[in-house]
Amino acid sequence: MIPGNHDIPGLNHPYDRFARPFRRYRRFFGHALEPELRLPGLHVVGLNSTRAFGFHADWSEGRISRDALARAGRRFAAGPGGLRVLVLHHPLLAPDGHGRSVVDPLPALLDLIGGHRIDVILCGHFHRSHLATVGPDESWQGVVSQAATVCSTRLQGEPQGFHEFLCTEDRLDVIRHGYQAGRFVAQATFSFGRGGAGWQAVE
């Protein structure tokens, strides 16, 4: 679990916003803002992209510090191998027709993905579903999964939803679920195969 921009106090609580933005989040969800999970065949690293303020107009946008990127790199380098998953709140890709900014600095994040051969990147923020492959170049591509909101009523052109992953060593099947007629239903499946240069979409 990682924090998003709505997990910090609003500007109507200026002291909490600027002096202790993650106090309430930590009270309910634990102290770690960048948790790590290691299981046989799976290594998950969290990356905190949420900032209380910054030198830019829209403070809801995602920013990652150089220290956080370096910390994530050290964790992946010391990890057990298996499927490598990076989790952050803010997105890497903007859907068609969407004018909002993606996470910054994106080139450094792509270098992290390529340098440590990260398989899957999980994120959200736009409340829009999007699946694609990303990487610094053609030497390595990871699968980025930007899921729609699962429970918020702040919709952005599509209903609530989530992504389900079915994984083997060299194949990922991602099932996009959407809420309709009072329940979540499977709407589409996107498949990816792993080769020497990472992941590519397959039929």
CATH topology: Transcription Regulator spoIIAA
Q: Helix amount, in percent?
A: 10-25%
Number of domains: 1
Instruction: State which percent range the strand residues make up.
Output: 25-35%
Given helix and strand content, the structural type is alpha/beta
Low-confidence stretches: none
CATH architecture annotation name: 2-Layer Sandwich
Write the H/E string, N to C.
Answer: HHEEHEHEEEEEEE
Describe what this molecule looks like in 3D.
- The chain has 203 residues and is α/β, with parallel strands linked by helices.
- It has one domain (5-157): Transcription Regulator spoIIAA (2-Layer Sandwich).
- Helices cover 17% and strands 33% of the residues.
- The protein has four helices and ten strands.
- The chain has a six-stranded mixed beta sheet with strand order 1-2-3-4-6-5.
- Strand 2 (42-46), helix 3 and strand 3 form a beta-alpha-beta unit.
- Helix 3 (66-77) runs parallel beside helix 4.
- The longest helix is centred in the middle third of the chain and has 12 residues, at 66-77.
- The radius of gyration is 17 Å and the shape is globular.
- The model has no long low-confidence stretch (mean pLDDT 90).
